[in-house]
Amino acid sequence: MAQGAAKNEDRGMVAVFSSSTHEAELEADNIHALLEANGIPNILVGPSVLPVFEFQVQVSRENLEEARRVIEEAEAAGPEAAAEGEANSE
Fold it and tell me: Which residues in the chain belong to E strands, given as ranges?
């Protein structure tokens, strides 16, 4: 676990997403934006220079289940729903 992630866990923040794949940064950015759009405060944790380390999106423990539900719904709806949602927000 990254040092910053450990400090945030001490403050009641837990990872709702975690990945170190080649797409981790993009996925983390998308989840971060999705949660923000749904009013769920979160922070993005990850390296800014070395993409070999894990990226995380963290939420407070009290928002964990809601964050998971929002992510699952977005994944089930697929890319078309994301594009439609973005178009509606403009």
Answer: 13-19, 42-45, 55-60
